[in-house]
Amino acid sequence: MLVEKMKAVAEHTFTEVVYDVLQAPLQNLTDTLAGAVIIVVLMSVMWWCGIHGAAILMGIKGPLLTANALQNQALLDAGETFLAGENAKIVTIQFLDVFTKLGGSGITIGFIIATLIVARSAHLKQLGKLSLAPSLFNINEPVIFGMPIVFNPIMFVPLVIVPAIASFMVYFSILWGWVDPFNALQVPWTTPPVISGFLIGGWRAALLQIATIAMAVAVYLPFVRMQDLVSYGEELKAQEDADKASA
């Protein structure tokens, strides 16, 4: 028995063995709803700790998710019909880059829009105005470190649950046929929301991005109100102290 297994291994190249033993199982794990949620949650937790979660995790998962997209492209090239959840992969590199990281990890564009809607504190108002433009190009460091969201207990919950909810939205939109599975077509990560969705999936993917942003705003809104109360109170106290000092 052992000899037969050794012969079987010897008949394959090292690359084929690595693919069969490591990449294929990991790739199948990435193409699950649980796998997608775990990736985005870990990414957000790392960002909350001040660590660039995308740079760390995507170095490992990026090639596997890209392989999922290339597998879908192979189906198209072969003239086969996409069947999401069967022959076509749902969780691809576009799934994360274009949908669950809208405006940056944690979909913090929802936080920015929420601050522009309800914030009274000068700090949050100014932060929202200054961060909006970078966020449209999926750059959210001004929010992550300028708020700061890093080690901010109020912001931990929305930072984690918003991309998790987005994963559910995107996964079932593809599984139920609203949006087609993604192929090898990719866009630069700085492509603004709605435009990026339209380019890779047409108007339905663009509409899904709009719905995702609306969800993010709704979830961030109560937490922004709580943060605004804290920041506004601190500003009032600082003003009172300044008035007393100058009296």
Reading the helices and strands in chain order gives HHHHHHHHHH
Mean model confidence by pLDDT: 86
Query: What number of structural domains do the residues give?
Result: 1
- Category by helix and strand content: mainly alpha
**Radius of gyration, whole Å:** 22 Å
Report the sheet-strand fraction: under 5%
Count of alpha/pi helices = 10
- End-to-end Cα distance, whole Å, is 92 Å
Helix content: over 70%
Largest sheet: none
Shape: elongated
The number of strands is 0
Membrane topology: Multi-pass membrane protein
Keywords: Cell membrane, Membrane, Sugar transport, Transmembrane, Transmembrane helix, Transport
Transmembrane segments: 33-60, 102-119, 154-178, 198-221
Domain PTS EIIC type-3: 1-223
Tell me what you see in this structure:
Keywords: Cell membrane, Membrane, Sugar transport, Transmembrane, Transmembrane helix, Transport. This protein is mainly alpha-helical. It has one domain (31-246). The protein contains ten helices and no strands. The chain has helices spanning 2-10, 14-30, 33-48, 53-77, 93-100, 109-118, 122-136, 141-146, 153-175, 195-246. Helix 3 packs antiparallel against helix 4 (53-77), helix 3 runs antiparallel to helix 9 (153-175) and helix 6 (109-118) crosses helix 10 (195-246). The longest helix has 52 residues, at 195-246. It is elongated and about 80 Å long. The termini are far apart.
